[in-house]
Amino acid sequence: MAENMTFLPKKELLTLEELDRLCSTFIRLGVEKLRITGGEPLVRRDIMKFFQKMSRHLDSGALKELTLTTNGSQLERFAGDLYAAGVRRVNVSLDTLDDQKFADVTRWGRLTQVLRGIDAAQAAGLRVKLNAVALKGFNEPELFQMTEWCASRDMDLTWIEVMPMGDLGNEDRLDQYWSLKDLRRQLAERYTLTDLTERTGGPARYVRIEETGQKIGFITPLTHNFCESCNRVRLTCTGELFMCLGQEDRADLRAPLRASEDDALLEQAIRDAITLKPKGHDFDYSRQTVAGQMTRHMSHTGG
Ligand code: SF4
To answer: Is the dihedral of CA 251, 261, 60, 71 positive or negative?
Structure first.
C-alpha cells in the first residue's frame, strides 16, 4: 500500500455475513475456487468466522478449494485455524529474504515474523507457495538464494512480472521491470528446467527444476499474457466486481445484495457482469513507456 492511503467508512464495507451471502451465491452459480485476498485478509476482525462458515461449501463438495494470499504477518496466529477450516494451500507474498530490504520495501515489516508464519503454516499441514514480484536491481541478486531456500523448505515459488498498478510513475515502473524471459534464462544457466503442462485456469505457467524437484511458476502479463484462458473475477470488500485485474470495468453487487433478502436480483447482476468480462489487459512496456497503467492499487482487489 502507499504511505498515504485513505480508508473507507465502515458502512461501505460488506459485513462478513454479506460476504458469505455473496460468495455463496457465486458458488451456487458454479464457482468452485475461492481465493481470499486483501490488502492483507488476516488483519480483518473475525475473519476466521468467515473461513469457518465457508467450509460448509467444502463439506458439500460445491466448493473445491478455499485458499488465500497473505503477506504472512498473521500466519503464525491463524495457521491452525485455517487448516481446521479446510484450507490446504496458502500463497505468501514475499519479494526478498533480506531483513533490511524487507523492512525498506514494507516500510516497517519484520521478515522474521513472516518466516515464523511460514513455519507455523507448514507445521499445521498447509502447502505454502511463495509469490515474488520480480524487481530489477532489488531481488534479482537473490534469484538463486530464494530458489534454493524454497527448495530446502519444499515450497513452490512463483515469479510475477511487475504490473503498472497504483500511482507509481512511468520511470519507477520501467526501472523495476525485470522480464521473466530473462529470469528464466538465468535459471536455465544453472538448472535443468522442464516445462509442465499443469494449468490452474490462472495466468501462471510452470516448470520443474530437475535438480531440486521443485515447481517454479511464471506469471508474465507483459512478456506473454494468458488472458484468453482467464477464468477469474475479483470482488472487493465493498461489493464491486472487477471482471479483469487490468481493466476498470466493474459491477456494483452491493446494491442488489442490500436491495432484497432473496438473491434473485443479485444472481442477475452477477450474470450480467460476467458477460462484460474484458478480453484482457492493455499493459505494455515494449516502447520504453508504460501503457495500460491502472490508477487502482493492487491492494484494492488483491493479486
Ligand atoms: S489481466 Fe484480466 S483477463 Fe488477463 S489474466 Fe488477469 S484478470 Fe484475466
So the answer is: positive
Ligand 1 contact via 225 beta carbon (within 6 Å)? yes
Question: Quick check: is 244 in a domain?
Answer: no
Is 241 part of any domain? no
* Domain span at 74: 15-235
Number of domains in the chain: 1
> What is the C-alpha separation between 212 and 73, in angstroms, rounded?
28
- Atom from ligand 1 closest to the CA of residue 279: 3
- List the chain pLDDT tens, one digit each, 303 residues: 777 778 889 899 999 999 999 999 999 999 999 999 998 999 999 999 999 999 999 999 999 999 999 999 999 999 999 999 999 999 999 999 999 999 988 888 899 999 999 999 999 999 999 999 999 989 999 999 999 999 999 999 999 998 888 765 555 667 888 999 999 999 999 999 999 987 666 778 899 999 999 999 999 887 777 788 888 999 999 999 999 998 898 999 999 999 999 999 999 999 999 999 998 888 877 766 777 788 888 888 876
H helices of 107-263, in order, are 111-123, 143-152, 170-176, 180-190, 254-259
Among protein residues, the one with the nearest Cα to ligand 1's atom 2 is 244
User: What are 261-268's contacts with CB under 8 Å, separation 24+?
Assistant: 263/21, 263/25, 263/28, 266/21, 266/22, 266/25, 267/25, 267/28, 267/29
CATH number for 30: 3.20.20.70
223: in domain: yes
**CA nearest to 8, candidates 269, 239, 260:** 239
CB atoms within 10 A of CB 112: 10
Residue from 158, 220, 245 to probe ligand 1 pocket by mutation (most atoms less than 8 Å from CB) = 245
CA 246 to ligand 1 centroid distance, Å: 6
Q: Is the CB of 294 under 6 A from ligand 1?
A: no
Residue type, 22: L
Q: Does residue 141 lie in a domain region? A: yes
